[in-house]
Amino acid sequence: MEETISLQDLFKTLKKRAGLIALLTILAITIAGVVSFLVLTPMYETSTQILVNQEATEASQLTNQNIQTDLQLINTYSVIIKSPAILDEVSSQLDLDMSVEQLNSKITVATAENSQVVNVTVQDEDPALAVDIANTTAKVFEGEIKELMNVDNVSILSPAVLKENPSPVAPNPMLNMAIAAVIGLMLGVGIAFLLEYLDTTIKDQQDIEDILGVPMLGVISPIKEEAKLEPITSRRKAGKTNGKKEESAAGYRA
C-alpha cells in the first residue's frame, strides 16, 4: 500500500521534535561563535593603488588597438607585481620570515575594467605588517619595472595607511553564526523526520488502521480501578469466620 504524508503530519512531526530542532540550532550557533571569536585568527586588510600612465598621444592616434595594448600592459604589470622578482626584494627589505609563496598568498592584485589603476591588496594577521607589505610592494615594483620593461610610466597613486582602530575583515562572527543557525536548523529538521521514520511503535488507533489496512469498529475505553480488591485469602478467612458465628448463633437459639 502506498504511504502518503499530509502537511498536517509534517507539522505534527516538527511540533513533536521542536525541542530537538531548537537544541541543535542553538548548539550550532554556539560552536560557530566560539570558533569565530576564540579559534580563528583575525585578518586585517589594506590596499595601495598604482597608476599606469599612458604616453601622450593625439586623438587621431587613439585607436582600439592602442587601447587593447594598454590593457594588456596593465595585465602584464599585475603578473609582475606577484612575481618572485618583486616579492623577493619585498621580503628582503622587510626581513620577512616567509617564502615567496607565502607572501604571494597574502597579496591580491586587481584592476578595474578599462582603468589605468592597479589595486594591490594585502591581508595579514598584523595590520601594521599588512601596510608595510603593500607599500613596499608598490615601491619595489615602481623601481624594478624601469629595468624589467625599460619603461617609466608607473607611479604610486594612493599608499596604504594604518588606521587608528583597524577592524578585521575576517572572520565575520555574525555571518558565521547566521550560517551555522541555518545549518543547525536543517540538520535538526532532518534528524526529526529520520527519527519519526524509524519509530515503528503503535501510538493510536490510526496507526493500527494503517498497519492492518482495515477500519476499526470500536474502541474499549480504559477501566479505572476505584478501589483495591481484597486478597482472595482474606476473603476466604472472612467467609469462614462469618460461618462460625452463624453456627454459634443457631446453637444458642436452639
Automatic annotation (TrEMBL):
Transmembrane regions listed in the UniProt entry: 20-40, 174-195
Pfam families, per the entry: GNVR (PF13807), Wzz (PF02706)
Region (Disordered): 231-254
Compartments where found: Cell membrane
Residues covered by the Tyrosine-protein kinase G-rich domain: 144-194
Membrane topology: Multi-pass membrane protein
Main location per the UniProt record: membrane
InterPro entries: Bact_polysacc_biosynth/exp, GNVR, LPS_length_determ_N
Keywords: Cell membrane, Membrane, Transmembrane, Transmembrane helix
Domain Polysaccharide chain length determinant N-terminal: residue ranges: 3-94
Sequence similarity: Belongs to the CpsC/CapA family.
The protein's name: Capsular biosynthesis protein
